[in-house]
# Entry
Amino acid sequence: MRPSRQLVAASLFLRRHHAAVAAALLACMALLLGHAAFVDSPTIDEPNHIARGLAFWWSGDSRLSTAHPPLANALQALPAALLDEPIDFEKLKGWPQADIGRVARALVAKDYEQLRSAIVTGRLVTGLLTLLLGLYLYRYCLRWGRGRALFFLLLFVCSPVLLAHGHLVTTDLPVALCFAVAVGEGVRWLEGGSRWRLAFAAAAAGCAAAAKFSGVLLLPVLGAATAATALAGVGRFAGATSPARIGRVLRAGLFTGLVVLTVVNGAYRFERSFWTVRQTLAAPEPANWITRPHRGLLLERLSPLADMPRQVRLPVPYSWLFGLFSIEAQNERGHGGWFLGSTEPTRLYFPTMLAIKSPAALLLLLAGAAALWLRRAGRWPARLVERLRAPSSRLLRPLAVPHLALWAAPLLLFWLALGSKIQIGVRHVLPVVPFLLLAAAWAGALLWRRQPALAGLLALLLVAEVALVHPGHLGHFSLLVGGPPVGHQISMIGEDWGQDVAALGTVAKEAGLAPLHYVPYGITAVRELRRTGLKFRTLSCKTRKLRNGGWIAIHAAQLLRWKKCGPIDATRPPDRTIGEHIWLYRVEPPAAR
# Structure
């Protein structure tokens, strides 16, 4: 069947102007990210992240960077650190104990407007990193053709998960960027690329480990991919003898390990690096809600340090090492949200969340990609060995050994996430999302060649779904599951992150909801609501009755976990909602009942 004249014209246009189309797509994403950065109220975790970054620059001390390494937060705080008047962190409550929660609360109390401004500029930095991630993967996809690269970029720009977390001051998007670059450059090096590819991959892996602890997973993935490529004798190992392959693998592993250690230590400015085991165990441990139950003995209880010789020197900073095991403590304790009516962790959480947080068009394309893969799988066994030993010019095929790293990295992260008891949002598997988009782009490019009208329809559906939910991407759920009204009956904690507080003030003033009693959610919520000019009173859930009646505003994440708050409980449907996340109840005075 001959392609239509319109399809030929569209294909020629995209082929000739693919760079301009890509730039236009990224510009659209920049507008969406920028708008959301200014509209959304500060979320629950952002004050802690920006406090770490500001402390890094203004105090010269990285003691607060235990729950998260400092690299991402330092980058996000850099604009504010350069433009704002410095704060003396040593005078803030919680600083001697390295208690990030108390330090962040002290910053809010000292000058909320300054802190809020720092969060907004930090969000713009995250947005820039998001655009860099899209640009890198677009250029990576050009190896498979301009059509597939553009289809990937469309999926990327219209990904609600990336739009949601690509404008917040957290470490999730930065580590996703490092994850993608490390894998992409590692694959290119294994295929026979220059040594600079290995240097970039190692640096990206180091940045990932210096931004979020899950970044350390890249080391075994890159090591295993290198060993497998050497064993198969393909790519840069083609034609080499066995001793030469072993030597190259060992040299690459040693180089990567040294680069990662240098980047991690450099991110901490080599503070408290290369301490002995004795020094490490003797140091006062940072205090927070995770570590307090261990009473200063977290490393003795959870790490192998207690069984190691005391004179051994550790090649990582104390804060990084302590933070790594504090994550283990958090996982042992459990940090569940509200999922399918339960607060208990479940292995179904992340698979379900990745599915229901994906746009309908993406899910359909992933289903198509899976069907194509299964259809072709029947023809693979007979040619598997031949493909694995193909010349380097054929190594772009999906089954080539170096390319397996492209899928081993996200699969390992996803597999480990299944057993995690920290289930407070899909953002913890955010590095997996770009790889899902790569798979969907493969199916989308094939569909464009065979059924262009259907491909265009899916593209329109994708754009429409994102446009309908903007700027509330945190609360997005796929149209295939019924959208946000149905999705919020499945999950709420990772969606209600305090971003709708300013919207509450606007709606309450316009609708005349008075008197209003607000149950605070997070350390910035009260001050954020006051910024809107709304008159309200804070409400404690211990208050059983409202003497004069009025309205109660409470976050759904609170009520669903607590079941009851003052005169209302979770079984009563709200009278009004703000973005599905803030529930409003009209309460009559006791005499009127």
Notes: Residues 501-592 form one domain. The CA atoms of residues 504 and 578 lie 6 Å apart. Confidence is low (pLDDT under 50) at residues 387-399.
